[in-house]
Amino acid sequence: MLGIGGSLREGSQSERALQIALDGAAEAGVRTRLITGPELVLPFYDAGVPERDERATRLIEAIREADGLIVVSPGYHGALSGLVKNALDYVEDLREDRRPYLDGRAVGLAAVAYGWQAAVTTLEQLRTITHALRGWATPLGGSINSAETKFDEGGGASDEKSVRTLRLIGRQVAEFAVTRAA
């Protein structure tokens, strides 16, 4: 299970939300891996340039190997972050794979923004991108208003419902991946 997201700020609210969702996946018995912040600082995606730097190659290989993904983006001005969008653009490099794009993979999604409007619109954009990349968005997605919910360093949050939602998203991705593999 691969977690992608967060922001450039180490320990950001979206990174902490992503870790909670991955913890839910781990509780369901799958191995998890996390790619966030500085690891997502990639050159702008350009399909016309076949060379990839080391970080982009690591990201592409991690996605290729993953049976499921969890993507959490901060919501900036009502949209997902450029950092997360650019990382998702690199999925295009999987177009010729045996499993093209995100085909056959569950993708859990959540957005963390300062306000409900940005959180909801960011989640909807993540769903649209997931569908365009042939991924199976989990039935439950997370829209988290960081004006009301604060994540702590210990893996919790001020709103227990947000923690339950994120853990359930992780479990849904893990269960889909295990069922599909069987």
From TrEMBL:
UniProt domain NADPH-dependent FMN reductase-like: residue ranges:
2-139
The UniProt entry, under Pfam families, shows: FMN_red
Query: Its Gene Ontology molecular function terms?
Result: FMN binding; oxidoreductase activity
Organism superkingdom: Bacteria
Which SUPFAM superfamilies does the protein's record reference? Flavoproteins
- Gene3D superfamilies recorded: 3.40.50.360
InterPro entries from the UniProt entry: Flavoprotein-like_sf, FMN_Rdtase-like_dom, NAD(P)H-dep_reductase
Q: Which GO terms describe its cellular component?
A: cytosol
PANTHER family xref list: CHROMATE REDUCTASE, NAD(P)H-DEPENDENT FMN REDUCTASE LOT6
Q: What is this protein called?
A: FMN reductase
Q: What is the lineage of its organism?
A: Bacteria, Bacillati, Actinomycetota, Actinomycetes, Pseudonocardiales
